[in-house]
């Protein structure tokens, strides 16, 4: 009998990706602290500022007054999903190619969405929303609400799998010509599909969160 534990490749890849990203951003933090805001912005810092500014603007436009509470979470989603989806570039198993990983991400977004509704509307207002527009809609509204994480998880998982299937079909259709061409096609597909998947997952999560917040709180 063996008591050895073989770690699933998806978990191993996730741990490696998260660890590397944590170290990278901790180091980046110390570099940014040394930057003088009164001088010209270093060129290496521009892409990071562009990404943060873009996310801040998008979250402000949809969430409103409490955007600072949400931007770190959604920016974390963007970074993790992007680097997870291109993990094949650095020879790791793609974590988002496993339904358990996409389901976990979707569940976390679902919790953020529901907590946002309770915080903004209050428990009474949140529960009352399940009766809109008529009390008879209660069962349908409940099913619709809890189908959200399932939809997010399957959409991300399906997009990853479809990208992999297209790559395999191209590989076999190109025959001997695939050897010199496929590395470039794989890189293009990984990056292009990753950007699309990040955009879809995060934009939907932000929009569903915004729908739970009162209109007066969305005015920044």
Description:
By secondary structure, the protein is an all-alpha fold. It has one domain. It is built from six helices and no strands. The protein has helices at 9-33, 46-63, 67-85, 99-128, 138-174, 178-211. The longest helix has 37 residues, at 138-174. The radius of gyration is 21 Å and the shape is globular.
Number of helices: 6
* Percent of residues in β-strands: under 5%
Which structural class do you get from the secondary structure elements?
Answer: mainly alpha
Taking pLDDT < 50 over at least 5 consecutive residues as the criterion, the unreliable ranges are: none
> Quaternary state, please?
single chain
Q: Determine the fraction of residues in helical runs and give it as a percent range.
A: over 70%
What gap, in angstroms, lies between the N and C termini? 62 Å
The chain-level mean pLDDT equals 85
Largest sheet, in brief, is: none
Number of individual domains: 1
If you compute it from the alpha carbons, what radius of gyration comes out, rounded to the nearest whole angstrom?
21 Å
Overall 3D shape: globular
H/E element order: HHHHHH
Produce the secondary structure layout.
Elements: H1 9-33, H2 46-63, H3 67-85, H4 99-128, H5 138-174, H6 178-211
In short:
Helices cover 74% and strands 0% of the residues. It is built from 6 helices and no strands.
């Amino acid at each position: 009998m063996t008591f050895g534990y073989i770690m699933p490749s998806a978990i191993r890849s996730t741990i490696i990706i998260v660890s590397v990203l944590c170290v990278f951003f901790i180091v980046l933090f110390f570099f940014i602290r040394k930057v003088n805001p009164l001088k010209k912005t270093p060129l290496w810092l521009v892409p990071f500022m562009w990404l943060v500014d873009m996310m801040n603007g998008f979250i402000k436009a949809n969430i409103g007054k409490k955007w600072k509470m949400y931007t770190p979470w959604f920016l974390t989603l963007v970074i993790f999903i992007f680097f997870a989806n291109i993990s094949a570039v650095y020879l790791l198993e793609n974590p988002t190619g496993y339904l358990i990983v996409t389901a976990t991400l979707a569940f976390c977004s679902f919790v953020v969405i529901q907590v946002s509704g309770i915080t903004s509307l209050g428990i009474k207002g949140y529960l009352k929303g399940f009766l809109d527009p008529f009390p008879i809609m209660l069962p349908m509204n409940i099913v619709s609400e809890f189908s959200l994480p399932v939809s997010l998880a399957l959409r991300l998982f399906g997009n990853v799998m479809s990208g992999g299937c297209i790559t395999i079909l191209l590989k076999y259709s190109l025959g001997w010509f695939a050897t010199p061409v496929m590395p470039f096609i794989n890189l293009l597909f990984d990056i292009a599909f990753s950007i699309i998947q990040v955009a879809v997952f995060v934009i939907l999560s932000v929009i569903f969160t915004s729908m739970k917040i009162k209109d007066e709180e969305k005015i920044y």
